[in-house]
Design a protein that fits this description.
The chain is an alpha+beta fold and about 240 residues long. It contains 9 helices and 7 strands.
C-alpha cells in the first residue's frame, strides 16, 4: 500500500477512469473541505448564531478585505460545542486557507475516516467520524445515514478511527487538491484531520495485506456489515 504525502507524487497518481456511480457525487459532502464561498452559499438565510451562518459572515468579511474579521468568525465556530465533526473540519479547512494552523498535536488528531472501494459496478463508501456519526453509500444508490448512539457501533467506530490514527502517525497531509474518486479496482483510505487530508491507496489485495491499511479496511467492512444489519433489524421491527 502506498501512503501519499506532502511530497506531491501527483505525476504518478492513478486517478484516471474513476468508478462511476451516484456515490461519486455524494462523496463531495463528506470531507469538510469546500471552498469558503461555496459553504457560505448554503447559509445566507440562516440566523447569525447558526454555525453555517458564520461561514457566510466569514465570506462577506473576506470579500470586504477584512481577513481578521473572517478569521474571527471562523474561530467562533470552533468555540461552539456539540457540532458535527465535519463542521469543525470545514472551519479548519477555511482557516488554513487564510494562513491559520492548529497546534501540531491538534493538527494530527484524526477526526474522521472515509474508506472508498471502487468496484466495476460503482463506488462503495463508508465514512465514520469522531462524533459517532456514520455514512454508508452503496454503489447502487442505497444509503444509510447514522447519527444515533449505539454501544456496538460506537465501539467499531472507535476501533476504526484508532486504525486510521496509525496511518496519520506515519504520514504527512496531502499538499494539493483532493484527488477524484479512485479508479476501478482501487481502495483508498482517507484520514481527515484539522491539519489536512492524509490518505493511502492500493488494490484491494495490497491494502488488505498491509498492516495498518488492512486493519482499517477490516474495521470499515465490520462497520458496514453491522450498520446494515441494525438498519434491517430496525426496519423489520426487530
Amino acid at each position: 500500500m502506498r501512503y501519499y504525502s506532502i511530497k506531491k507524487e501527483s505525476s504518478s497518481f492513478p486517478s484516471d477512469q474513476p468508478a462511476a456511480s451516484i456515490s461519486v457525487d455524494i462523496r463531495e459532502v463528506l470531507f469538510g473541505d469546500d471552498p469558503l464561498e461555496k459553504v457560505a452559499s448554503y447559509a445566507r438565510d440562516l440566523p447569525g448564531d447558526n454555525p453555517w451562518a458564520l461561514f457566510n459572515t466569514a465570506s462577506q468579511r473576506l470579500a470586504a478585505g477584512d481577513t481578521p474579521g473572517a478569521i474571527a468568525a471562523l474561530k467562533k465556530i470552533l468555540q461552539m460545542k456539540g457540532l458535527e465533526a465535519r463542521i469543525y473540519l470545514q472551519a479548519w479547512h477555511s482557516l488554513r486557507a487564510l494562513g491559520q494552523m492548529p497546534t501540531q498535536s491538534r493538527a494530527r488528531e484524526i477526526q474522521g475516516i472515509i474508506v472508498e472501494v471502487a468496484l466495476e459496478r460503482g463506488l462503495d463508501i463508508i465514512a465514520a467520524f469522531v462524533d459517532g456519526s456514520v455514512r454508508y453509500f452503496n454503489y447502487s444508490g442505497a444509503a444509510v445515514v447514522w447519527d444515533e448512539k449505539d454501544e456496538e457501533i460506537d465501539r467499531i467506530v472507535t476501533e476504526l478511527l484508532t486504525a486510521g490514527q496509525g496511518i496519520v502517525d506515519i504520514s504527512e497531509p496531502w499538499d494539493g487538491p483532493r484527488p477524484e474518486a479512485p479508479s476501478v479496482g482501487m481502495v483508498r483510505l482517507n484520514l481527515l484531520t484539522f491539519g489536512g487530508l492524509h490518505f493511502g491507496q492500493g488494490t484491494f489485495s495490497v491494502v488488505a495485506q498491509d498492516g495498518l491499511g488492512g486493519l482499517a479496511l477490516r474495521g470499515a467492512f465490520d462497520l458496514m456489515q453491522t450498520l446494515v444489519a441494525k438498519v434491517k433489524a430496525r426496519n423489520a421491527g426487530g
